[in-house]
Amino acid sequence: MFKIFIVEDDTGLVNLLKEYLHKFGYITQSVHDFETVRDQFESYDPHLVLLDINLPKYDGYYWCRQFRSLSTCPIIFISARDGKMDQVMALENGADDYITKPFDYEIAMAKIKSQLRRAYGSYAVAQNERVLSVAGLTLDVERLSLSLEHTQTEISHTEAKILDELMKKPEQIVSRDRLLEKIWDDQAFVDDNTLNVYITRVRKKLAALGIEDGLQTVRGRGYRLVPNWRDEA
Hints:
The structure is a single chain. The chain starts with a strand and ends in an 8-residue tail after the last strand. The chain is an alpha/beta fold. Helices cover 39% and strands 21% of the residues. A five-stranded parallel β-sheet has the order 2-1-3-4-5, sandwiched between helices. A four-stranded antiparallel β-sheet has the order 6-7-8-9, covered by helices on one side. The protein has a three-stranded antiparallel β-sheet with strand order 10-12-11. It contains eight helices and twelve strands.
């Protein structure tokens, strides 16, 4: 039975969400004290989080980062903010999807089911596959870390998704569309420059490990990870 954690200060919406989720057999818990959100999350250990942006004390971006430091469970923002940057910031802070208010409950349920299926169902990656290694470069998707020999750097949730796709196919070209599909379910608010920003950040993380030209751009086609650093060892 899947447990859903609702971080929302609108009690009316919370009650409607609970009622709808219970119809589909999900167990729910909502925040009762916004001073102890992290503790409640740890204690409940949910399978998925529904999270608003505008909250008492700290905003949803802050809590998303807190949750990501503890878990890789799916996080879906539900917010009245419909700006492109609000949605990009949510993803950058570790979210998996974004739903704008007012929303259709059937669409919301479809997105929840999709995320649960990816994380725990038929599309889920086996636990022993969550650590990838290419020529000594190791990506720990669960712990959001990237290391080479004795040097390690922390990475964001989005950077991990990009590296995950590239490291599964070393020396093969991964298209921009594939990376966008991997990172975002709904690409409507994502422009080409957004992916460019994330690719630049990935390159900086690789450079921190001493890898300068490992991530190559193939003009008009996409990107590929070339493990040329092993030749320098």
